[in-house]
Amino acid sequence: MPCPVTLPWNEQLLAYDFGAGHPMAPVRLRLTVELLSALGLLSAPGVRVVDAEPASDDELARVHERAYIAAVQAASEGVPDRSRGLGTIDDPIFAGMHEASARIVGATLAGAQAVWQEGPARAVSIAGGMHHAMPGRAGGFCIYNDAAVAISWLLAAGCERVLYLDIDAHHGDGVERAFWDDPRVVTISVHQSGQTLFPGTGFAQDVGGPDARGSAINLALPEGTGDVAWLRGIEAVAGPVVREFAPQVIVSQHGCDTHRRDPLTGLDITIDAQRAAAEMVGRWASEHAGGRWLATGGGGYDVIWTVPRSWAHLVAVSAGVPLAVQTDLPAGWLERVRDLVDGDGPTTMSDGGDTDFRCWVDGYDPADPVDQSIAATRRAAFPWRGLDPLTAD
């Protein structure tokens, strides 16, 4: 059934550009919006495209230090501050960096405001998901932390329980840090283990601050984890907590660098599993969060074939008009893509992945590395929430 969904977007979001050769190329957003248009999703029932204005300094200061905001503004004028991560290989400075970064925050804020003030409603901020930015430092291609600012705004607006679910290949460290000791926010991150991937954090024993034990939940997965195990892990660590916590809003980050084609990561996930994960989150939002769901993009460095397809599925699922996995890619869009790359790529919205997973409570294999990780996470975090690590479903 179609759902009202807000899509904050304008062409100025493409100005978040670290330059030629940087993995986070803005063409990934342009191709995503062009695919959304070609598939008819921008005109689907209930879909509303709204403008994305830069967040104000006061809005950024909900999460970020004023001195850091000033340093980003200086970086926009050509003055790096490597002590704050500005001017590094990951985060080179560029003209207009502050405004471009603040606009991403503004887009996600617009989505949060629509979800809270107009709910039950949904929103997708495809340019958002900058989950590595810390209060006083850039990191991992992220300057300002849009998800953390949006969650802070929700709390100030009267929301009492927010669940943040991050399924990017990288640990959602910046959002976790912002709410480490705040029991009103549960952060769940399902990611490739920090033993093999940046930022090197996010392990099972990391469960939150002294006043919020069990509010941070981390599932660190072994390199090479595939579709069935990944979906099983998401359901096993997030499902019981969503049902227990009963959030008023779910905020989710859908970095698609989990994909098997991604050049920077080591998971083995398909478009089909990413679509299935979005459906899982959408179902939880409908059943346990009053229908309020704010989704963001995030990582994703196979910028032509993976990012547009993954986030087109995310928008379609959010709008309640999910695309069949075997939907053909529109001919005009394929022609556009072939102007950018040599050779042929996928022709449908599917990779032929397997999404039929067994739920945790139906049995687990103590010799399986992924099941070992799931068990470690549940043992570390679930008792703090009054959940049984073995039987909670």
UniProtKB/TrEMBL annotation:
Record domain Histone deacetylase: where = 22-316
**Pathway, per record:** Ketone degradation; acetoin degradation
Provide the alphabetized UniProt keywords: Acetoin catabolism
Keyword GTP-binding attached: no
What are the protein's GO molecular function terms?
histone deacetylase activity
Biological process according to GO? acetoin catabolic process; epigenetic regulation of gene expression
Q: Does the keyword Glycoprotein apply?
A: no
Q: One Pfam family, please name it.
A: Hist_deacetyl
Q: What family, per the record?
A: Belongs to the histone deacetylase family.
Q: Which PANTHER family match?
A: HISTONE DEACETYLASE HDAC1, HISTONE DEACETYLASE HDAC1-RELATED
Q: How is this protein named in the record?
A: Acetoin utilization protein AcuC
Q: Which organism is it from?
A: Ruania alkalisoli
